[in-house]
Amino acid sequence: MRRLLVTGGAGFIGANFCHYWSEQHPTDRVVVLDALTYAGNPESIASLTESRRVRFVRADIADRAQVDALLTEEHIDTIVNFAAESHVDRSIEDAAVFLRTNVLGTQALLEAASDSWGLGAAERGCRFHHVSTDEVYGSLAAGEAAFTETSPYAPSSPYAASKAAADHLVRAYGRTYGLPFTISNCSNNYGPYQFPEKLLPLCVLNALEGRPLPIYGDGLQIRDWLHVADHCRAIDLILQASPAGETWNVGGATQDPTIAVVGAVWDVLDEAFAAQRELRERFGRSPAAQGGSARTLVTHVRDRPGHDRRYAVDARKIRERLGFVPGKSLSTGLRETVRWYLEHEPWWRAVVSGSYREWYARQYRL
Ligand code: NAD
Ligand code: DAU
Question: Is the model's pTM score more than 0.90?
């Protein structure tokens, strides 16, 4: 039986991970630590906390006193660190908080784990798993080979640079203090509970409300899309089977331009609106409610500064050594995700109020 501390467990991937873990490993202890920034939503794990399958503690990963107390009190032997500032555009507007959380916060957590577990942590089965991103490798030109675990780091945005710094710190704590760690560098996730500042939920919600969808530049940037449930399963495999000290690329093996993925989402929506009168009544401002297509909402805007043109992940290592292959195709995953947002209107109505509206107005001026 493991005793997990899931940091950032009220965010998009962390919450999905808590649901996944509670189903797959029901006898494990799961404690979530999350500062509840604008992106953290306790509602995303409410069914787990209410049934007491997960304990929730509101705290900052940089708060040594709170983290130390939890590690001791809960006898934590596994930390999965999702906590981060995660949105590239916000890091371009103001990088400082990204360095505070992603770099200094990760360092504080590493030190807390190292102090708490002490010598012989690896032999006792302790593990610090750090959740990182393919963005640390920078941008690929068309035709260039996909990133492997040994590709040099070349981050473009302050967000990516802060994640790269954190990865280096994790490895340094392994080398210097013997902390048993693993790192996963994953591609773009999509699925339930994703905050609508990210492309796919933004695309769904703007289509429902009949708002323009801002496409940066020509919209031909390429991302590797992976359903969040597959990412959670990959982390599980790493925790079960990876030796300490290893890094794993995780990817979906899809390489689609933004504009094509957006079009695929809207095709699903247009189809659903054509079939269901109830949707046409609920979302009267959507072009699809009037027999049109959400595709008319595409609005090309100024490109993101330093925008990475293409990501592609070479995930052979995790496939060959741990047997991981993505389980969900992009078309099935997108269909399910659209349905989830249609069925969870109160969840997204609550998160798009307040400070998000102010950010939206500043970011897009649309
Ligand atoms: P998210 O923004 O949805 O969630 C981040 C969570 O961290 C939120 O609940 C927030 O409240 C919490 N948090 C922020 N600062 C904190 C702090 N100082 N202390 C404690 N909690 C804090 O992000 P996400 O998309 O779920 O990403 C989770 C992790 O996965 C991040 O580390 C991100 O870099 C990484 N990642 C994301 C993707 C993706 O496509 N979303 C892909 C690869 C890797
Ligand atoms: O690759 C993994 C990364 O994926 C994670 O590390 C990040 O946390 C996560 O946010 C994501 O970063 P991206 O920048 O790739 O995701 P985003 O959803 O912001 O944008 C996806 C693509 O869509 C990107 O090329 C920019 C474009 N885009 C995005 C937004 C929000 C637009 O064209 N318009 C938009 O309004």
Answer: yes
